Amino acid sequence: MSRTRFAADRKLTSRMVLTMFLIGLLYVVFVGLLVWALGDSWPLVVVIAAALFVLQFWFSDRIAAFSMGAREVTPEQAPELHGAVDRLCALADMPKPRVAIADTDVPNAFATGRSRRTSLVCATRGLLRRLEPEELEGVLAHELSHVAHRDVAVMTVAAFLGVLAGLITRMALWTGLGRSRNNQNAALLLVPLVSAVVYVISFLLTRLLSRYRELSADRSGALLTGRPSALASALTKVSGQMARIPTRDLRQAEPFNAFFFAPAFSGHSLSRLLSSHPTLEQRLDRLGRLSAELGRP
Q1: Which of 134, 147, 160, 263 could make a disulfide contact with 230, Cβ separation 3.0–4.6 Å?
Q2: How many CB atoms lie within 10 A of CB 72?
Q3: How many Cβ atoms sit within 10 Å of the Cβ of residue 66?
Q4: How does strand 120-124 pair with strand 109-112?
Q5: Of 231 and 250, which is predicted with more confidence?
Q6: Per the domain annotation, does 287 fall within a domain?
Q7: In sequence order, which ranges of 68-180 are alpha helices (DSSP H)?
Q8: Is the pLDDT confidence value at 45 over 80?
Q9: Domain assignment of residue 5, yes or no
């Protein structure tokens, strides 16, 4: 990443590179299968898929912000939020991203953007209403760490490739899979099967990366502010307040869990393999150990 005062994380960088390599390798195999299955029809599917990918890459930040109800605000509209972001960006020696507020009572925050120039940091009204200034700065430092490490862009692309597998399969089936009847029947069975495998593997790889990047952002954000206890307090408060939010609101927020500071549902009933975040206990334990390290002479 470009130099900032956020603590560099080589393990995160290597995991991002490995994740993108493995997902890219999956798609080389997948596209090869489609070329075999579609015969003369494959250029149309590839062109449409490429166009969808380009649109997703260039407009993913706007799509995500719109989907989550984020509205960009000026310093006059949200002076405390802008003030906190200004202080952290000056401390981190990084460009200031756009600042937004999501009009929901679900206490959370997220960052989007394919680059620092297009990045956006958003806090919900529920978060702003519940957190103390030091806790809010801890959460914002966590989100700015995602921007500095550029893992938001990697997550966006990696997650979209899984969705793209399903779209390509549908388009392939619509074209009639233009080969002989025997090959067509085989392709009708094989393409959806391989597509499902590609989607599952992509999903598991992005979940694995998502869990690690949250731990990395916790550490980097806490090191920047020098107050791991403030971030731990915010994390405990946000996780505890989720139980008081109506289930309907949590369900609406759940699809965006991978981008949130804390998941809308804690996921105690879900396998850790499927979780977008580490457990609350794991995050608090890491922050507690970091706090002890910083307290040593």
Answers
A1: 134
A2: 13
A3: 11
A4: antiparallel
A5: 231
A6: yes
A7: 79-92, 125-130, 133-149, 151-174
A8: no
A9: no
How does the average pLDDT of the chain come out, rounded?
Answer: 81
Tell me if 104 sits within 8 A of 250, measured CB to CB.
no
Are the beta carbons of 88 and 99 closer than 8 angstroms?
A: no
Question: What CA–CA distance (Å, rounded) separates 280 from 272?
Answer: 12
User: What is the distance of C-alpha 226 from the center of its chain?
Assistant: 25
Binding residues: 142, 146, 214
Maximum Cα–Cα distance across the chain: 75
Higher local confidence (pLDDT), 79 or 166: 79
Lowest mean pLDDT among 6-10, 158-162, 178-182: 178-182
> First CA to last CA across the chain, in angstroms?
30
Average pLDDT for residues 237-252, to the nearest whole number?
A: 84
The torsion of the CA quartet 254, 255, 260, 263, rounded to 10 degrees, works out to 30
d(CA 138, CA 132): 10
Structure tokens at 109: 């925050």
Within a domain: 2: no
Give residue 180's pLDDT. 47
State the CB neighbour count (10 A cutoff) for residue 213. 24
What is the predicted pLDDT for the residue at 266?
Answer: 55
Nearest to 161 by CA among 52, 14, 289, 80: 52
- On whether residue 115 sits in a domain, the answer given is yes
Across 110-124, 218-232, 253-267, the highest mean pLDDT is recorded for 218-232
> Which residues sit in the known binding site for Zn(2+)?
142, 146, 214
* Structural domains counted in the chain: 1
Residue 102, strand partner residues: 70, 124
What is the extent of the structural domain holding 291?
10-295
Which whole-number Å values give the CA distances from 31 to 56, 113, 171, in the listed order?
19, 27, 13
Length of the chain: 297
- pLDDT score, position 172: 57
- DSSP classification of residue 95: P
